[in-house]
Design goal:
By secondary structure, this protein is α+β, with helices and mostly antiparallel strands. Helix content is about 55%, strand content about 20%. The protein has helices at about 1-20, 65-95, 105-120, 145-155, 160-170, 170-175, and strands spanning about 45-50, 50-60, 125-130, 135-145. Helix 2 (about 65-95) runs antiparallel to helix 3 and helix 3 (about 105-120) runs antiparallel to helix 4. The longest helix has about 35 residues, at about 65-95.
């Protein structure tokens, strides 16, 4: 009897739920100009177009210049980090395709040393600070051209022609850099 009443109660609840009408969902998010961010700031930390890679970041401080410097440092680090991840994906793809040299520790070290130079080679595209609630928020966008990235990787692997040829001529690297 106990199980029957529990089953009956669950059945009634499910029937009531099934018979209730569906209500239309509405999107209450209205696009409004957000004055907390500069118009150039964008929605993505990292992105690329046909010629360049970009990263953007924000940081806070009681001083506007310090906020901008912190944001620039973060944006440069993000740019290098995202490009490094893409280069590592190319290396892993080569390894899966049977390349043994891309797993050698010397190759990995040379590739890492090459992409570390991206951080210092990046150029600031935009820099701005805005005060909100008594704190300055710095906004910075940095970028580096795809030919520059190619040159940095090529230069970093130049002491070993096998490494350089294997990586630079791979389809994965070509797809990444184009």
């Amino acid at each position: 009897m106990k199980y029957i009443s529990r089953t009956l109660l669950i059945s009634v609840a499910l029937l009531a739920l099934a018979c209730s009408g569906a209500s239309e969902l509405t999107n209450k998010n209205i696009s409004v100009n957000n004055t907390l961010y500069p118009t150039w700031y964008g929605a993505y930390e990292f992105y690329s177009d046909s010629t360049r890679f970009y990263a953007r970041a924000t940081a806070g401080s009681s001083d506007p210049k310090t906020a901008e410097l912190r944001a620039e440092k973060e944006a440069r680090a993000l740019l290098e980090s995202y490009i490094a991840k893409e280069l590592e994906d190319v290396r892993k793809e080569l390894s899966r395709d049977g390349s043994s040299i891309v797993n050698e520790s010397n190759f990995i070290m040379m590739l890492r040393n090459a992409h570390y130079k991206i951080e210092e080679s990046a150029e600031v595209s935009f820099k701005e600070s805005i005060m909100t609630d008594g704190v300055y928020r710095g906004f910075v966008k940095v970028g580096i051209s795809k030919p520059q990235v190619r040159q940095l990787i090529e230069s970093g692997l130049s002491s070993n022609n096998r490494y350089q040829n294997e990586f630079m001529n791979s389809p994965g690297f070509s797809d990444f850099i184009q």
